[in-house]
User: What shape does this take?
Amino acid sequence: MYRLERHVLPFVQKPARYIGSEIGIERKPLSPEDLRLALIYPDLYEVGMSNLGLKVLHAVASRLGGVTVERSFVPWPDAESLLREHRIPLYSLESFTPLREFDLLGLTLQSELTYTNVLTVLDLAGIPLRSADRGESDPLVCAGGPCTVNPEPLAPFFDFFVLGDGETALCRITGTLIELRKSKASRKQRLEALGRIEGVFVPGEQPPWPGGAQVIVQRVAGLERQPAPDGLPLPLLELAQHHFSVEIMRGCTCGCRFCQAGMYYRPVRVRSVAAIVETVRNGIRRGGWDAVTLLSLSSADYPAVEELVEILQPELESNGVRLSFPSLRVDRSTLRLLGRLDGGNRSGLTFAVEAGSPRLRGVIGKKVEEENLLELAGEAFRAGWTMVKLYFMLGLPSETEEDIDQIARLVDRVARLGREIPGKHNVNVTLSPFVPKPGTPFQWEPQTGLQQLQAGMNRVRQLVRSRNVTLKMHDPRLAIIEGVLARGDRRVAGLVQAAWERGARLDGWRECFDFALWEQAFETAGLEAEAYLRGREESEPLPWHYVRLPVTEAFLSSQKLQAALGENVADCAEGPCLNCGAEKPAVCRELRLPESLEGEIPSAALPLTRTALTAGPESPVMRLWRVRYAKRGFLRYLGHLDLVRAIEFMLRRSGQAVRYTEGFNPRMKLHFSPPLPLAVESEAEYFDFECTATDQTALRETLERTFRDFTGFQIMALKALPPESRLPQLAADISCCLYRISLDREVLPGERSWLDYIGGCCAERLAQGALFIRLDKKGRRKEVSLRPALEGLEIDDKEPAISVILDVQGENAVRADSFLEWLLDLDRGRSSLCRIEKKESFVRRGELRATPLEF
Ligand code: SF4
Ligand code: SF4
Assistant: This one.
């Protein structure tokens, strides 16, 4: 941790990714008796912590006796290079334990574009990349997630794969390893035992022969008894999806032929309304979340969706919590649902149309009627939504130029509708290349090449005429790599390793993806992309032939045939069973519509904590409070906006009725002192809020209890402001601050006392006129007089430290780190070794100077 603080955190973007300072994080030393499990998401923290699968497995593992579970993520390249330079191994966020000290590493593979990240994790952890090179002291490394439909491209890097739902498998795997520990089983013996667990695949040196034993993809029988995430740990850094997600249903019966998840997660299993309501309430009480997402592959198909919304919507709204559904159907059921989702953020509504023409939508099995789409978009615009997002794919099987033209025509129709309805309405269109995925009816189809994809994108760009349309195109070169990795065989492992060794990192990130590295890697590995993008005969053994999916090959084949005939696919939830093989039809029905679906709704509703700014006799009496707080330790690496959001979450968690703003998107009404720069600690930060509490002692106790697990945050004082006072603008009124800067030994000259050294530096600066030069926002040079600061500067005579008052607003404002660099002529690297603490903030009124609590 010491080296991390000294050599890495001050120099990277978003250091909060690497500090694990989450609210409710369990920090306990790793017990040598426990089986130590690290769950790793092979992408950045903010992506990984948005993933429900990771949270579900974390919730499951946390409840297992004899297991300690921690988490880790992939660093951004700036942090990766510093970790390498200073030989700091990749570690877990909870206890900062190097990953190689764990017994088991579990990685989740959600996208082929994270494959090189797997190698980054292993290499940064100091673990041999290939399973064959690992020894007795190395952890076992396993993978789960949807990409394991085809384990072959990563088979040499993993000791074993877990196919299907992870919940039950995780219990069996950890149980087996705990037992084998007692007999001090060798690595080989452990892998042999794990290979006997259903759904576990231990890759041998050669891929399994066709016709041999199959690995059956596992499914949990129902969601009801599976642990659900409880809202903690609460991330401080803004996530890619900063919501509390509750899985309401797993699986989808719509049958879209391109969709891997729709086939892989069959049959549909639901969580009861009562369990969902309880989980949502629990998450808000524990985490204070401001947005809840009811998650599934097709949430509008949840059998009791309207009842669910009817219960949750009013309760959440009165707590300032938004309710959202990520995946909506293009039909009238969505209209009814949207009608119930009153209030909330109405910025964008997303529809996956996928293909422009009815013919091609029939081929791919997408049941979207153009008139329904137009009706829905029109209703949405009229109801206050300002944007409709439309998703399309290019390069679908049997696509013609006419199909592409129809995308542009449809987009223009929606855009025209947006212009005809009063108000500003935009249409955002995303075009993604189609990638045939294993385990779908299109697994045998050829993938469209780069030039043709590019031509299709250009064609749409030229044909779309409307001004209120924004077109976004996914990079077709990424799709080529994704396609090779998705349907690759074991030789593709060599390609992944060659690309990684050449520098491929975080390929899913536009800023990082470098196609040239992959082109070179193809040469090194002696492979050609076309060999993997080609169509396959159904008689040809596929690399993943040994994986027994929930749906049968015969079903996939029949769907491929129907696609070729242009026949749409029926939803088996609405019509007869299509014999996909996932279950017996009666069992499917019972799983989807269990007798206990609604159950008894727990009565303990959330307290009403949101109080809108409504004037009149009905409005509650509000009191204005000012809080002084400290921000210390690792929390100094959290940015201002993230801290503001965390405090909002904490206030919601406290159960206090706090004032919100009015309007479509109400926010908690908070006022903060000026933002504190990253890496500066403080015991003099302030915020104001209004709430209905009147008893200062009781409110302080409540706040202290609520903020207790917010490591690094401390409430220093709480004061009621006089009722007649106008809400003071802390951000504008605090004009100067007192800092204490403790100088690191490395910045001091060894031959002189610090008193002489600092005194000499001050005298020298004064003699030079005490002018500090800074650049304003337009890049112009500004001279700032630091004479008053230097004249008031105090040097500590007990330890090497100075205290100085600096302006934080106006012409003479200067940051404490910049002041230090100027005074001692330090570069950023050396100044960052010194500890800067803000001790007080001051408000000036004429000649008077006082703290914000004194005014
Ligand atoms: S609706 Fe279609 S695309 Fe969406 S999850 Fe279901 S099968 Fe997949
Ligand atoms: S077995 Fe029949 S009812 Fe069940 S998911 Fe498959 S097609 Fe649908």
Residues 610-728 form a domain with the Alpha-Beta Plaits fold (CATH 3.30.70.580).
